[in-house]
Design brief:
The chain has about 650 residues and is α/β, with parallel strands linked by helices. Helix content is about 30%, strand content about 20%. The protein has a domain at about 1-255 and about 490-515. The longest helix has 23 residues, at about 405-425.
Length: about 650
């Protein structure tokens, strides 16, 4: 369902297009301006380029810090303002005259208001570099090192990954080089987007730096200017990049993503100390299963951090606080006392359900886990099951594309709910209701907790995995990361991009394809703080997090998208098992494989695990074997 919502958003934007006069813009594009400048100015330096006589063509690369309509790469810290209530001390702002946004500012202005509340630039969103009006060639669409002439580098000398180049995929637009991170950028980190004169030389095209770039390289721009790049150029020189080779440059800082979630956990700990998280109002429902004795229906009074508009830190003080609480329904399976070779106390499996599902799925999955000696527990996610839903539609309630900050925080609030459930599970250590009336043996081993998430549950589970350390292992079925991968892999959006591409080829002034990708940048940035890939990657790189994960993906997933599943795996850092359907830009390993891994199935069926066929049986058997070997040896086996 999330892919349908994403495509609806892009479709709505495309409908607006027909009311636009594509030639009516408040400013010329950066590439048009820079081409004009190139006809009036040429670079004169004392350095003789040894490749000068090998150039079939020469052009000036667009970069201008000194005009009102800046011609610079984006993101860029130029477009931030001070904000004392921000974790970073800054927040974003959008200059409507900036060429990247100017033509379609009016169409995006509704969402840009929310975009401007962000405390740093996105970690998964696209980056844009203005291009000259000349024919360009991409010899590769995968930029991974500074020798390729275009790169995104960490430029904070105090950062543990100072000098690291972030891998990006590249695509040529009409006026921009669009760079897409293949894994998220690091949170709260200073980066530079750099173009050097090494780019395109292999094609016989040589670039000259613009007069503005020459002045920046020579330190002619005042150090008090907000456009000062002297320190960035110094750091680049430390990494072996000569400042005279730089053609275009921006410095930007990514948003913090852990601060709010870490604070939420601290608050939940304080609340739990004062008033413990406890499952109340237990009601028992007999089970027809040969493995399950009964199901428990219970309530969990759950703290909520969102205001009545669904947004975190939206109070007068802009601080995270418990704004209210809600009684949330929980379901728990009670395995039989004599469960084959398995005995009490039973490990607990937290089951995280998908879109339009609920904690009632515990009934459907409890046998999967009872077969290997696990009890199962689940709760309703925000907007789902019996939780409040003013529009009576789980999908539209949760994925609020008209209020993307609420969409983001619906995700964070749901994860916070599972963090609270974890605390309630820890308080189950003395429960004794198996068999009916108890037998003096605790029912649950609260020190052995596992997670299985399907669809939306896998997305939320990925965020959870990046935050906690007391989960033994995870199974993620049809998981997805990165909103734009979900949106742009949908057939509707692919059709829109085909249409806009044809319009752009006929009318050079339209550049409607740019609008589609620009809208993706805006939305991706607003959703990054609840994206599982962002948390998986940053926890792994910055906090040394290690995962025990089985990820099962549909290669052509008709809801979350196969591309999104691959992004999830790349962020987590686990390999792809062979045989596979298509390579996900991951290390390849053969089965059986000891450790985490991504298994790809040749299907488009997002609901593949729910089918009554051999594929569903294989998926269920695979997760059971992974979990049982993980529990027995500390390392799961994927076969």
């Amino acid at each position: 369902m999330i892919q349908h919502v994403a495509s609806v958003f892009i479709l709505c934007l495309s409908l607006f297009l027909w009311g636009c006069d594509a030639s009516d813009s408040g400013s010329d594009s950066g590439s048009d301006r820079s081409t004009d400048n190139g006809s009036e100015n040429s670079l004169v330096t004392d350095v003789v380029d040894p490749a000068l006589n090998q150039c079939d063509r020469r052009a000036e690369f667009p970069f201008d810090l000194e005009s009102q309509e800046l011609v610079v790469p984006y993101p860029n810290n130029i477009f931030t303002v001070s904000d004392s209530s921000s974790h970073s001390g800054r927040r974003l702002t959008v200059d409507r005259s900036f060429p990247l946004f100017s033509k379609y500012y009016g169409l995006l202005s509704y969402w840009l208001k929310s975009f401007e509340t962000l405390e740093g630039f996105g970690l998964y969103s696209d980056l844009f570099v203005p291009l000259p009006d000349v024919e360009l060639t991409l010899s590769t669409d995968n930029f991974k090192n500074q020798d390729q002439g275009v790169f995104v580098m960490v430029v904070d000398p105090d950062h543990p990954f100072y000098g690291e180049v972030a891998p990006v995929y590249a695509a040529l637009e009409q006026r921009y080089l669009r760079l897409t991170p293949s894994v998220p950028l690091l949170e709260n980190t200073d980066y530079a987007i750099v173009v050097t004169d090494a780019w395109q030389k292999s094609t016989g095209l040589c670039f000259d730096a613009s007069p503005s770039m020459v002045r920046v390289s020579n330190g002619a721009v005042s150090s008090s200017s907000p456009y000062d790049y002297e320190s960035v150029l110094t750091h680049l020189e430390e990494m072996g990049v000569q400042r005279q080779s730089v053609l275009s440059l921006s410095s930007f800082t990514t948003m913090p993503i852990f601060a709010d979630m870490d604070k939420a956990q601290d608050i939940l700990d304080d609340v739990n100390n004062d008033s413990p998280a406890v499952l109340t109002d237990w009601e028992f429902e007999p089970s027809d299963s040969s493995l399950i004795d009964a199901f428990v229906h219970a309530k969990l009074e759950t703290p909520l951090f969102s205001d009545n508009k669904g947004i975190w830190r939206n109070n007068a003080d802009r601080v995270l606080a418990v704004e209210r609480s809600e009684s949330v329904d929980v379901m728990l399976s009670l395995p039989k006392k004599e469960l084959g070779e398995y005995q009490q106390p039973y490990p607990l499996m937290i089951y995280m359900h998908g879109t339009s599902k609920s904690r009632r799925d515990v009934k459907d999955v409890s046998d999967w886990f009872a077969n290997i000696g696990f009890a199962t527990i689940g709760m309703d996610s925000l907007c789902h099951g019996d939780r409040p839903n003013s529009i009576n539609n789980e999908t539209l309630c949760y994925y609020e594309f008209l209020n993307p900050l609420a969409w983001r925080d619906n995700g964070r609030e749901s994860v916070a709910g599972f963090l609270w459930l974890l605390r309630a599970i820890k308080n189950l250590s003395e429960v004794d209701v198996i068999p009916e009336g108890g037998d003096g043996i605790p029912d649950f081993d609260v020190n052995q907790i596992y997670v299985t998430g399907v669809s939306l549950g896998a997305i939320q589970g990925g965020v959870l995995a990046g935050l906690v350390s007391d989960i033994e292992g995870y199974v993620f079925n049809v998981a997805g990361a990165k909103f734009t991968d979900i949106a742009f892999d949908h057939t509707v959006v692919k059709s829109i991009l085909w249409l806009t591409g044809n319009i752009d080829s006929i009318s050079g002034d339209a550049d409607l394809t740019h609008l589609v990708y620009l809208s993706g940048l805006v939305f991706q940035s607003m959703l990054d703080a609840s994206d599982p890939g962002v948390f998986l990657y940053n926890a792994r790189r910055l906090r040394g997090k290690e995962y025990n994960v089985l990820q099962q993906g549909a290669a052509y997933d008709n809801q979350v998208s196969g591309l999104s599943g691959a992004s999830f795996a790349r962020a987590g850092g686990w390999p792809q098992l062979s045989p596979y359907v298509w390579e996900a830009d991951l290390p390849l390993v053969d089965s059986p494989h000891w450790g985490s891994g991504f298994v790809q199935y040749d299907t488009a069926d997002h609901d593949m695990i729910w089918r009554n066929d051999d594929l569903a049986f294989d998926l269920q058997s695979q997760l059971q074997y992974f979990l049982s070997t993980l529990q027995e040896t500390g390392q799961g086996v994927i076969r």
